[in-house]
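Instructor's aside before we start: the two examples that follow are unrelated to each other. I chose them only because their records fit on one page, so don't look for a connection. First example below.
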Amino acid sequence: MKAHISIFLLLMISGCSAQPVTNVDENKRSLKADRKSIIDKPIWLHGSPDCDNNKEPVHDAYMHSEKTIIIRQNKCITFEAPFIYVLVGDQKILVLDTGAINDKLESSLDKEIEMLLGKEQFSSREILVVHSHGHSDHYQGDYTFEKHSNVKLIKPSAVEVHKFFGFSDWPLGLATIELGGRLLTVIPTPGHQEEGITIYDHETKWLFTGDTLYPGLIYVKDWESYRESIDKLATFAKNNEVKAIMGSHIEMKNRPASYYPVGTTYQPNEAKLDLSVESLQMLNDRLQETDRPTELIFDDFIIQPLGRIQKILSNIVRWFTQ
């Protein structure tokens, strides 16, 4: 029920906007079109023109290494097709987001991860399940982990996030997660959603940004918080090596400033998943020049501030789901 409410209101949100639009100057909005992806997977499963007869698996998994796994959910089952990240340490395993599927499917998320890691590794280490933020397409798979005694599941609410990570003056400060030989830094990044976080993996040098930054149409609920969060990430990237920005969706096409509309279930010409750190710096430069909520169109993503009615609808979703 919660997921259906969220999807209905999301579709309403996507259809109404009254913000000024800025098509960022070409020399300030684009990077080299032939930029090589950081991951060795040229094509993700991207839906079908006939989803009723789609036979593709529920999860499309890519093992970047034995310790770093990326999973995308089937676009014919959920048009959101969110990405889920699994980071393995010597003592703990982090699962970042659990996706948008809450049906009792044979190939549930916990079983998929267990198959990829092996039963012994899956059951012998503590599994920490956290979320980039509290939108329902990022926690619908939580139920699959609740039966496992070795799982610590952090609910995607502001109260639980602040409590678990020890944030006493949100959104100031940083937190860390030690997986055992693999350190993660947790960065508060509200703006898209109040409890949003970004995670930096010191092993891969990746920033996992959730819906704060990804190749798609990015809704911004709180403009000033978003500006501050992007500035914080840009500063972090200047002080730490960042090899890639890894978000939660692909909505952009593989041509500049073009995206698939909300609800699309077939995306044959998608952009790459990863964004470069230069994209982050470019966005920050523009945001710091833009005090007023404004739609900003870049080649690799589009920033869309919510209007007053959209914020009310977003708060209704939040009331039902948190």
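Example two begins here.
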Amino acid sequence: MIKKASVSILVGAALTLSSVNGYAKTWVEFGSEYEQYSDQSQKGAPYNYEQLNSLTPYIRFFHSPDSNEWNVWGRVFKKHYPNENLYLNNQTTSMTDRAELHFTKVIRRGNWRFRPGVGFRYNGYDIDRYEKEYRLYPQVDYFLNSKNQLFANGHIYMGDSQGKRFNDTVAETYTDWGYEAEFGLIHRINNVSSIRPHFYTEYDDFDNNYRINYWQFRLVYSHKIGRSSIHPFIRYGLGRDVTDQPNETVPNHPDRHGASRDINYSRFGVYGNIGLSGKWNFIYETYYEFADFKGYNRDAPDMTVEYPDRDKYFIKFGIQRHF
């Protein structure tokens, strides 16, 4: 019921905003994403990574009035797993649904531009599990001059979750929290090109499960060609510490609490759009992800076992309609 309500609200908002007058900036996007992994089980992987292959049709929308003092955007998608038969009992335990809605306001004060906001995200599963995030966006920009801009983007969230975690025999409810942030510089090279070097960090605290502390260095080059744009990017992982935190002693693994391993990943790729007309855009993105994969091993000196890398190839295509 929660899934259906979230999807209905988001799609209804998209259709409503697409009918506003021409003085507002509004677009709706329909597309699909594909993620592909390779089978590394013969090299020692704990399972066939191909079970994670997914096809994900989605809908996105964005709306801002002519003054651009506030905006609202949202997204809904449904993930399909063509290799679901590789899961235990032929049922995927990975995320299958997402619906989210976010609102931000723009406040200008001299060289400062504040972009506070609120948001909601729901992740659904085919099993007895879900995650809900309630977000606050404390975002800000500072314009050094006409060519250089400092920025800080991101959010803080409180989570309401349900699922089986350490020692659970049935799905339990939990309260989680975390944040994501990116901060750095936008340098405008000329009227059509810019470069954005910045850092990204993510922290998640999942009760009776684990903590994640992740840092990346990111670099994006942007170039406009008429109505089109291209944005090659690099996201280099500086470290991603995953630390177990069961609330109770794990049977046969009393030292599991506090066991930590660096499960890092990096990406490189490109995204952008091709302007088909004044109203229509073709959206694209592709990247390759290099991903370490490590598990817990009580008998190892650092309680870590290394598995074959779980690399991923990603591609997305979409059509965007402006109103």
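Confidence is low (pLDDT under 50) at residues 4-23.
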